[in-house]
Amino acid sequence: xxxxxxxxxxxxxxxxxxxxxxxxxxxxxxxxxxxxxxxxxxxxxxxxxxxxxxxxxxxxxxxxxxxxxxxxxxxxxxxxxxxxxxxxxxxxxxxxxxxxxxxxxxxxxxxxxxxxxxxxxxxxxxxxxxxxxxxxxxxxxxxxxxxxxxxxxxxxxxxxxxxxxxxxxxxxxxxxxxxxxxxxxxxxxxxxxxxxxxxxxxxxxxxxxxxxxxxxxxxxxxxxxxxxxxxxxxxxxxxxxxxxxxxxxxxxxxxxxxxxxxxxxxxxxxxxxxxxxxxxxxxxxxxxxxxxxxxxxxxxxxxxxxxxxxxxxxxxxxxxxxxxxxxxxxxxxxxxxxxxxxxxxxxxxxxxxxxxxxxxxxxxxxxx
Amino acid sequence: xxxxxxxxxxxxxxxxxxxxxxxxxxxxxxxxxxxxxxxxxxxxxxxxxxxxxxxxxxxxxxxxxxxxxxxxxxxxxxxxxxxxxxxxxxxxxxxxxxxxxxxxxxxxxxxxxxxxxxxxxxxxxxxxxxxxxxxxxxxxxxxxxxxxxxxxxxxxxxxxxxxxxxxxxxxxxxxxxxxxxxxxxxxxxxxxxxxxxxxxxxxxxxxxxxxxxxxxxxxxxxxxxxxxxxxxxxxxxxxxxxxxxxxxxxxxxxxxxxxxxxxxxxxxxxxxxxxxxxxxxxxxxxxxxxxxxxxxxxxxxxxxxxxxxxxxxxxxxxxxxxxxxxxxxxxxxxxxxxxxxxxxxxxxxxxxxxxxxxxxxxxxxxxx
Lengths: 368, 368
What we know:
Two copies of one chain form a homodimer. Chain A has 368 residues and is mainly β. Chain A contains five helices and 22 strands. A six-stranded mixed sheet of chain A has the order 14-15-22-21-17-18, with no helix packed on it. Chain A has a five-stranded mixed sheet with strand order 2-1-10-5-6. In chain A, strands 3, 4, 7, 8 and 9 form a five-stranded antiparallel sheet that branches. The longest helix of chain A has 9 residues, at 22-30. Chain A is globular. At the A-B interface, α1, β5, β14, β15 and β22 of A face α1, β5, β14, β15 and β22 of B.
């Protein structure tokens, strides 16, 4: 009997010698990362910000789109975009990173969207704060979770669903959480959630529900797929695990010099140069960045530029280096004000989430 | 001795059992295709158009950018963007496809950017026609090739180069060839060649040189890498081959129903539905599209919508279908007015270029 189960299989780990599959490639061809040279832009331009779309980009008409607020509230609401736009308007510059960033570098490799290190972007999101809208609906004092539902629909590991993610009520009520309708000063692009999405500064991308159409307040924990099954840190398939929440610290190097087309290895002329890149954390402000030019054997402090754009945006760092002829492996690691840092080796979990292993940038400095 | 050659290796074919490599994945994470559901848009929105960037996106300042015209001309020119914008302004809607589209489906697989079927987009490009500028420079009557140089720089198969491609002079002088500074009504995005690129309607993407900074007229054939080595249809590494030029006909199906996250296989409810998609050719207008719902065993004609946007833009096609429970493999094939069509099986060349094998869209129709 033909059924939805015929298109969907359980999660799995790649075999030790298994290279990237065509299924992983299909995802990589859709869900692109930031080209690393675009770390030069303080605000990531349209089309260069990373994208992770679970199902299809839905076709939502902004003229008729409405957001419902229901569940454990005194006064269920329905608001359209015009009404949301008439409410107080706020812009936050926010670094968004996919929880699966770095997954394809893990051994064993969880078979899913095969990110290397590029699933990040830093954009300006404009909208209206969520908390006043929730309060105007009259939150039940026993509210526990707030569930956000998108207009995107698909199957995942055998479960047919609308994309739906919950936040604990205390997190949903944080001042900086936005119902966003603009990105970088323009209406949201279809792939970024047009006409309305959630922005939860500091959290990995799965919390920033796109194509937002419904908010439901619950008085007990949400047990939907994306919270209870998908985005959890587990040691093995039977481990109930813990939820994926905020972004772990990470620094990326903007690759210097110029690339080889196929290997992406870099060629850099010998002599003095300034290395730079970006660093961020969803837990606390970035406190320091260190740089290695020898694959992690030694580290030296980078200089942090002043913050541009508030506490949720990445910061540029710089490092003066004299490139000597030879092969070098560059990397950077961030430490945040909470004391969290980045491992040089891998921490591993079965979903490949929240992995912030240090990047490796291979550079050849030729003899002139 | 460390040298540029250390980052770059010769072209190669994958072994029969070789899956996608990390190098191919790196390219797939940067150079994204159109998500196939975006075939719904007549004009591809920003960020959803395919991208193929050989090296890095260069950092070009539009305020100081200038285009030089030199070589076999009477009056070498330098023009800035303000001057180009003051010249006659033309908009063409153009379907652009990467010459390597479909490469990763070939057996054996040429190891390069691993496209499946998604390296396409249809945008509105605004700029000024090239021919009057060339004529005002005074073309040598013996001119043979016109070379276009971009600001992007890298290494490819051991050859360090600025990206540089030539057109035969007769092709460069075609009315529809543009020096484009806008895409979809906005200034070019960095990844699409800001602030200036070439648009050669009907040709594969390699001809539409991005970040255009120089035009050089030659009285003998151009022997640079991208014309003489890279973009050629060859049977084997020793075959001099023939140049890749215009886009072969292709039709794509917009996948119906909804997807499984991992496999991208589709679930479609049983009953009547309208399949649709797009079809294009760079040789001649699309004359007909046929659809298969049984993996190519039988074909039936689709209905072509009226053209929208002129002779260089894709056309929508539609096909009424009754989806019966079971598994189906959908596909479409275009034939153009020159009689060119699409093979169901693969035609093969060593670079994996100009491949227009019919797409396969797997659909499961569950019993309700």
